[in-house]
Amino acid sequence: MNQVATAPRPQKRQQEPQRKSIIATMAAIYDMEPVQFERTVRAQCSPTPKRGEQAQPLTPEQFAAFLLVARKYDLDPITREIFAYPKRGGGVVPIVSIDGWINLINSHPACDGFEFEYAYDSDGRLYSCKCIMYRKDRAHPTTVTEFLSECWRDTEPWKMEHRMLRHKALMQCGRYAFGFAGIWDEEEGQRIVEAEAAQAPRPPRPGDQTAAERIRPAPLQDANRESPIIDGEIVEAGDDETEIGGVDADRHPDSNYAFFDQLRERLAEGNDAATIEEIWAALDPAERFKDSPDDLDLCERIKARRLKQLGKED
Question: What are the extents of the domains in the chain?
């Protein structure tokens, strides 16, 4: 008896497990619905806007990036151990509160305690605070000293100088001892966002000079020297008159002039080499001019001039 051949029945494809979004993953930790969790965290994680300013909401991409950092460091956004500043050009600046830093340090398995030492000047005023942090897996402690003159800001919290300087020393020492990266305290985050906003080109206004109009003949330093001084920078003789510090003026867009001015103004605020380096890192000329070595060289000479004024030139 003939048998009818039948085709083999196709096997069912195993479905890959559906990946949860970072919002759903974090919401599950708090036993909340994703929509409710996102609404709650958005209300908590945005920084308080300054007077007269409106709060800038995080985009979905910025919010997701913020949650990834919170999960990486196991910080609670609902209790504001971590919150966020949106960056103008995209991305986010994760801000960790002092409660968050204390949580990070104390919960690290290698943490073996920390202590503080204050120093005072000859008039009995607070001068510095040293944080000494111990790790169970290292023979020597990590020590960081923060100076009041470099940290103090004219804000309400800094009326409690000892407490605020102690916070600064703890945060920075925790960074060195445990390698925490990509997170900032609130004042650092504000400086990063403000520096970025200052670099952003603004639309031209009536009466603004063009790049060509800003190029003016430079006076000679003296009768015996042919090298002109342009904006305080000595240009060696032989450079073309259409150049600024050896850089072709046509390659300087208006936004670069604004940045050079901003760099000079910010560096002028620094009264020591450490503050100069902090301002330089915040403005980050190396990143801005990574494809323009001439412009970066001009920035470095502006910095060197300020260090020389402070008597800190290497």
Answer: 22-79, 101-184, 220-309
